[in-house]
Description:
Layout lengths: L10 E4 L2 E7 L4 E7 L4 E5 L4 E8 L2 E5 L2 E5 L4 E4 L5 E5 L3 E8 L7
Antiparallel strand pairs: 1-2, 2-3, 3-10, 4-9, 5-8, 5-10, 6-7, 6-9
Amino acid sequence: MDIKLADIAYKEIMPGYHGQLIHTENMTWAFWTADKGAEVPEHSHMNEQVMQVIEGSFEFTLNGVTKVYEPGMLVVIPAHAPHSGKALTPCKLLDVFSPAREEYK
Length: 105
């Protein structure tokens, strides 16, 4: 299957986070555009997650430790680990989840 990212409609999953989502049987890819100041409240889920900052500056807290991530930086989020985030600037982010995020479909 070929996919052109520009053809995928944006979905606002939470305020300020607009995602272009791709789902396979075992994973979800989410290309996010995050508004400056948009926050992801602390949560956890059964999915493993890898987040990459493509553009901007993103404050991310994992297991109570807060760091600022810049373009090219990645963070691996284990299943069930509490985490939260905030876009310090307008951001572009990539999240990969395994297994697929059913609630994002």
